[in-house]
């Protein structure tokens, strides 16, 4: 008994000493880290603007706030000071030493360090409001600057086409994009958004209200908050006409009443395809329809859905009741408006897939069909810069219609109330994900990457993940809608309707037709695609085919449709 008591006392003494030592080490490490961060702030402040030259920045100004919503889910209200390259809030004097302020300050310093090392935002010279007058409007731009105009997001005047680039937007890039799509005007807002059209906005604004610097061009104005910097690009259209993309959609049966179906028409002797497409482009319609020697402009609608094409010889022979259809460079904007949910969603929905299974494309379809942003479990700056604004929203905010995730495992799955499970052929998924890792979302990996040892290691590790991802969601998912990527691509409207209904949303047929007309978005890979190249060895195929059979069996056991036939075996 005495020996046991002695051992207990000895253990307690050692424990106390150990706890004291760990506490002291933790405090010393924290102090050193705080000193290092403070030194970083001082160094950065010395390189930027002094405190008495700071520029007030409104909380609502896009791109001005530097607080990441993933770290600060409840941004503080009130003005901030833009000091050098970072925005820091000035706390009240009585709060300086409160625990809440220390936590907030620590988060801001952590954010400062992250942005310093990863260079999310480049160093900017101090700019006062009057400094914007010196910004270039016409010096290096081919278009003619018209002026600053008010912009109403609910009813835009320049709504022919919409582009986002929250890192590299320039005036020239916007001008060229609008000119190539046959528009006469290009407007920029928030430093990163580009709008095209043919009619000037009705309400002019003060020149100094267009005060947002272009994200990709220092010293140039790209609109402001609800303000458009508008340029005429008519002089660029002649050069752009040679590069303009007009696509032949096919031969279709013409609707019974052409004038009721199409809002614009042109009757002209010796009509040509070029004349009709140019006319419809100026009228801001995505379709040019030519029955015989007449020209009509419009959209895909229930009366004219463009789903069942006819024999092309019927149009070539001038058969009555048939028409040729061309896709003009104009974007169909009936489904491009998107926003966050006004109230928090009661159902937490996941859009789950293995990497490379088309999750980004599915998000594009869902956002344009429903009109609401999708969220993401991750922060992908490249996707955010291209218009997926839900990327920067906290994934548990419930302000988005669904949340992208590649996670598997019981805890990560059970936190969602329901899920759309997107499955793609593993052979295609593995190739797509390998391309993404080595060349980004829209590029292709090089020959060197495919023939390196990285590819076999990638297949060995990722093939099993493809199977386990599906199996885990089938096992732990509470309410699932299984969607096969290949079926979604082949039967877009029916499958998209299923997804929208699963999300408890209702959409019009015309909006779905608009999505179909913009089905690819900006997500087709560019660059040199390898031809006649088989990256999979027989050993890899044997491994992948086993996983395919396992997943197919699991789907059927859960009363879901099995995998498409093209999956198994290769």
UniProtKB/TrEMBL annotation:
The keyword Mitochondrion does not apply. Residues 142-234, 245-335 form the WSC domain. Keywords: Repeat. Pfam families: Sulfotransfer_1, WSC. PROSITE patterns: WSC (PS51212). One of its GO terms (molecular function) is sulfotransferase activity. Belongs to the WSCD family. This is WSCD1 protein. The gene is Wscd1.
């Amino acid at each position: 008994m005495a020996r046991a008591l002695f051992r207990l006392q000895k253990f307690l003494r050692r424990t106390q000493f150990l706890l004291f030592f760990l506490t002291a080490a933790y405090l010393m490490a924290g102090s050193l880290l705080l000193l290092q961060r403070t030194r970083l702030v001082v160094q950065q402040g010395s390189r930027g603007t002094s405190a008495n030259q700071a520029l007030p920045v409104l909380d609502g100004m896009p791109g001005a706030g530097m607080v990441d919503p993933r770290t600060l889910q409840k941004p503080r209200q009130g003005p901030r000071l833009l000091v050098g390259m970072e925005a820091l809030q000035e706390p009240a004097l009585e709060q300086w030493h409160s625990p809440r302020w220390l936590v907030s300050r620590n988060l801001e310093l952590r954010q400062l360090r992250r942005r310093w090392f990863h260079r999310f935002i480049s160093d900017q010279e101090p700019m006062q409001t009057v400094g914007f007058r010196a910004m270039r409007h016409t010096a290096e731009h081919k278009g003619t600057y018209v002026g600053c105009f008010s912009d109403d997001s609910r009813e835009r005047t320049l709504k022919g086409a919409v582009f986002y680039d929250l890192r590299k937007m320039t005036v020239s890039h916007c001008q060229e994009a609008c000119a190539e799509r046959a528009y006469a005007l290009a407007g920029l807002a928030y430093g990163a958004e580009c709008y095209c059209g043919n009619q000037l906005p009705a309400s002019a604004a003060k020149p100094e209200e267009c005060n947002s610097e272009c994200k990709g061009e220092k010293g140039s104005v790209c609109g402001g908050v609800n303000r458009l910097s508008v340029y005429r690009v008519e002089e660029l259209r002649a050069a752009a006409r040679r590069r303009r993309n007009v696509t032949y959609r096919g031969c279709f049966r013409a609707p019974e009443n052409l004038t009721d179906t199409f809002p614009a028409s042109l009757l002209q002797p010796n009509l040509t395809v070029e004349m009709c497409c140019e006319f419809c482009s100026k009228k801001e319609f995505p379709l040019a329809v030519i029955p015989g020697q007449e020209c009509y402009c419009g959209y895909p609608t229930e009366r004219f859905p463009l789903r069942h094409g006819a024999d092309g010889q019927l149009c070539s022979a001038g058969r009555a009741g048939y028409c040729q259809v061309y896709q003009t460079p104009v974007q169909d904007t009936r489904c491009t408006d998107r926003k966050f949910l006004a109230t928090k969603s009661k159902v937490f929905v996941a859009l789950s897939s293995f990497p490379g299974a088309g999750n980004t494309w599915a998000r594009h379809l869902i956002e344009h069909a429903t009109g609401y942003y999708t969220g993401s479990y991750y922060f992908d700056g490249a996707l955010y810069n291209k218009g997926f604004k839900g990327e920067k929203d906290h994934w548990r905010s419930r302000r988005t219609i669904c949340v992208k995730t590649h996670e598997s495992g019981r805890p990560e799955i059970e936190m969602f109330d329901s899920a759309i499970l997107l499955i793609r052929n593993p052979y295609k998924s593995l190739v797509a994900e390998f391309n993404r890792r080595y060349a980004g979302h829209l590029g292709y990996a090089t020959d060197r990457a495919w023939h390196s040892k990285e590819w076999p290691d990638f297949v060995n590790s990722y093939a099993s993940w493809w199977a386990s991802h599906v199996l885990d969601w089938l096992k732990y998912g509470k309410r699932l809608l299984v969607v096969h990527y290949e079926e979604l691509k082949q039967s877009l409207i029916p499958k998209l309707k299923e997804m929208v209904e699963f999300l408890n949303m209702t959409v019009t047929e015309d909006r779905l037709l608009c999505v179909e007309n913009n089905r690819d978005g900006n997500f087709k890979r560019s660059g040199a695609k390898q031809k006649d190249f088989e990256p999979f060895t027989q050993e890899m195929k044997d491994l992948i085919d086993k996983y395919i059979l396992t997943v197919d069996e699991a789907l059927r056991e859960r009363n879901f449709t099995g995998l498409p036939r093209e999956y198994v075996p290769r």
